[in-house]
Amino acid sequence: MKHSTRRSFLGSSSTILALPFLESLGFSRFSKAADLPVPAKRMVFLSVGWGVTRETWFPDKKQTGTDYDLPKGLAPLSKYKEDITVIQNLQHRFSNEAHWGSTFWLTGANRYGVPGQSFHNTVSADQVAAEHLGRETRFTSIQLNGKKAEGHGPGLSLAWNQQGKPVPGLDTPVELYHRLFSDETTPMEQRQAMLKQKRSVLDTVLEDARSVQKGLTSTDKDKLNEYFQSIREIEVRLAKEEEWLEVPKRLPQTPVKEPAAGLKGYEEIKMMYDLMIAAMQVDSSRVFTYRMPTDSLISSLGATISSHNMSHYTSGERQEVSEMRDQSHAKLLAHFIGKLKSSREADGSSLYDNTAVTFGSNINSIHHLNNCPTLLTGGGAGIRHGRHLVMDDPKTPLCNLWLSLLNGSGINVESHGDSTGKIDQLFA
Fold first, then answer.
1. Helix pair 266-281, 317-342: axis angle to 10 deg
2. E strands of 208-354, at which residues?
3. For residue 17, what pLDDT is reported?
C-alpha cells in the first residue's frame, strides 16, 4: 500500500482541495513531529472611517489593565474580552483633516510633507507587511474598500505603496469571491500570450521613458525615478502572475458558496469576514485591509440618515444611530474572532493564534483627531490580550503601534512613519 503523506490532496483538472489532517491517513503521527511547518503569520487591518461614539465606545481611563468594564459600544465582545486589547492615547501628529481619516490611518504621513504639493502620502503598514509576508502567496495582499461612493479624500484604499500611491482594491464580496476561488476559463496559451503582450508593452514604455532622461531638471528626474519605481512594481506583479499561472486555485475545507449579488451593510461585512477566513485557510494571502462601508451599514440597521450626518452627532437620533453602528461592528468582530478561533492550522493551532488583527480609525469621533479608537485581537504579533492600556503620553504616535505589530509579526523594520519606538506594554 502506498503511504499517504501529510500533504495529501484531492485533485482535478481545475481545483485542488487540501485534505484535513486525518488519523486514518496517518496524520496523527505528525501531530507532535518536529518537522511540521510553522504556521504563517497574518495581519488584518479593519478601518471604520467615521470614527466611533466617544461617549460609549472607550473604556473608562481610570480602569486599566485586566480589571476594566467593557463599555456599551464594545459589550457584544464580552465573550472574547480576554482575547482583545483596547489601547488609548494614540494619534497621528500630522492629522488635520477629519474627512481623510482612512487615507493616512496606516501611514501617518504629513499631507504637506513635500513643498509645493497639496497632497503627499507614504507607504502604509500593511504594504510593509506584504513585502515580507506576501512572497509565498498567490496574492501579495488583498485590499477591500467597501463602496466607492462612500467617503472623502483622494483615495479610498487603506493601502499605499512605496511611492505613496493608493493600491487598488475590491469593492464587493462577489468580486473577492471570484478573485479567490473562480476557475480561470481563458485557455492557458491565451493567458500566456496576454502576459507576454503586457511585458512587451511594458518594455516599450520603459525604453521610451529612458530615452528622455537627458536634459531633465532635478524635479523632472525625481518624477521619472518615481515612474521607474512604479514600472518595477508592475514587473514584480507580472513575474508573480507568471509564477502562479499554472497553479490551480485551492478551495477551503468547508466550501464557500458564491455570495449573493447586492449584499449590503451588515451582511456584506459579515461575508467579507467569512471570505477573508477562507482566503487564510487556503493561504491565498496573508495581509488584508478592509475599509468597511458605513452608509450601507447604518441603512441596513434601519437608519435613514447618512453616515456624514451621523458622524456629527449630538444627543438624540444621531447619537443613537452612531451607538447602534458601534455595537453592530462589535457583533461582527465577535463573529470574525470566533471563526478565527475555530479554524485549525496544520500544527493544531488556530488562525487566531497566528493572525494580528487591528480594528480602529484615524478619527476619534465627529472631527476630533486625538485618541484614535484602537482595538487589537489575535495572537500573531505576540500581544498579551485581555487588557485596557492607556498610554502616559496623550499624543503617543499611532505609528508606534504599527511598528510594534510589524516587529511582533516577525518583520524587522526599525521605524514606520513618525514612530518613536515600540509599545513595550503590549507584550509585557
1. 20
2. 250-251, 287-292
3. 42
Contact (Cβ atoms closer than 8 angstroms) between residue 124 and residue 91: no
Is pTM beyond 0.85 here? no
pLDDT in tens, 17-38: 444 444 444 444 444 445 667 8
Sign of CA dihedral 263, 155, 367, 359: positive
Cell output for 261: 449579488
Rounded Cα distance, 238 and 332, in Å: 36
**Which 8-state DSSP code applies to residue 351?**
T
Count CB atoms within 10 A of the CB of residue 191.
Answer: 15
Residues in the chain: 428
Determine the Cα–Cα distance for residues 245 and 261; give it in Å rounded to an integer. Answer: 28
Q: How far apart are CA 46 and CA 144, in angstroms?
A: 10
Closest CA to 131 of 411, 426, 422, 428: 411
239-264 b/e (C-beta count within 10 Å ≥ 16 → b)? ebeeeeeeeebbbbeeebeebeeebe
pLDDT value of position 129: 98
Q: Tell me the C-alpha distance between 12 and 111, whole Å.
A: 51
Q: Is 238 helix (H, G, I), strand (E, B) or coil?
A: helix
CA distance 232 to 118: 26
Q: What is the DSSP letter of 20?
A: P
Q: Which residue type sits at 22?
A: L
Q: Where are the beta strands (DSSP E) in 84-191?
A: 84-88, 90-91, 142-144
Query: In the chain, which residues have pLDDT < 50?
Result: 1-33, 149, 151-154
Rounded Cα distance, 64 and 68, in Å: 6
Q: In b/e form, how buried is each residue of 365-393, taking b as 16+ CB within 10 angstroms?
A: bbeebebbbbbbbbbbbebebebbbbbee
CB atoms within 10 A of CB 314: 8
